[in-house]
Amino acid sequence: xxGLTLTLEAPAEVPLDEALVVVVRLRNDGAEPxxxxxxxxxxxxxxxVWVGREGADRVRAEWPWPVDSARREVTLAPGEELxxxxxxxxxxxxxxxxxxxxxVVATFAPRPDTEVASVPVAVRRVEAFDEAARARRRxxxxxxxxxxxxxxxxxGTAAExxxxxxxxxxxxVARLLSTTVTTTTADLRAAIDDAVAATGAVTVxxxxxxxxxxxxxxxxxxxxxxxxxxxxxxxxxxxxxxLLSGAATIHG
Length: 252
What we know:
With 252 residues, this protein is an alpha+beta fold. It has a single domain (4-250), classed as Immunoglobulin-like, CATH 2.60.40. 32% of the residues lie in helices and 27% in strands. It has helices spanning 131-140, 143-151, 159-166, 172-182, 188-199, 201-211, 221-233, 239-245; strands at 4-9, 13-15, 20-28, 34-37, 47-52, 59-60, 73-76, 80-88, 100-111, 114-117, 121-126, 249-250. Strands 2, 5, 6, 9, 10 and 11 form a six-stranded mixed sheet that branches. Helix 7 runs antiparallel to helix 8 (239-245). It starts with a strand and ends with a strand. The mean pLDDT is 92.
């Protein structure tokens, strides 16, 4: 399937007590319209993200609750793109077992017999800087906390870890995702406002879309609240709105 280009965007450096979210773009760089899967998220399995480091095998970022959904397609006109995101979070530090330099690459199946791959992106994971941050890192490595964030529901004994991550002083993305699990939709706007102020509209939209893919959760009130905040932020970047809507946009 010619014409489709997959790119991956990630922050250059992320502490280990923060949840890492990457943005993935599928763009039609060809001269003709192209029909493609629109399931640009980890939960539905058309998108895969792989993490590697020197001297170790590459590890796939697996979603704990894969969804067997019906295939959804969109036709991208020349110059149009889909934007998705992926939360790279796994229990017991399986993806990022220690501080250091990692290589992250995405692959996507626009149709069952075709795959496109991104160029690898370098990400440095740095050690949590104090005991409070190290406690947050341990919480992010707790399997039940990971499952709770990915399912947006409190699993097992995860409540204490989620409260720790959502507390004052926490890393912005982990704090937002944990708060989304533990608070009501009516109280979520303040948390999204704080996160946008701390880390920007695109990062916030990517974080929420990674656990609430808009194609799987059309009309979800939490996405609508985030879209309102992003619109108010008015950054001039259409990426955040595209992440929250799942709609194709013109690149650039």
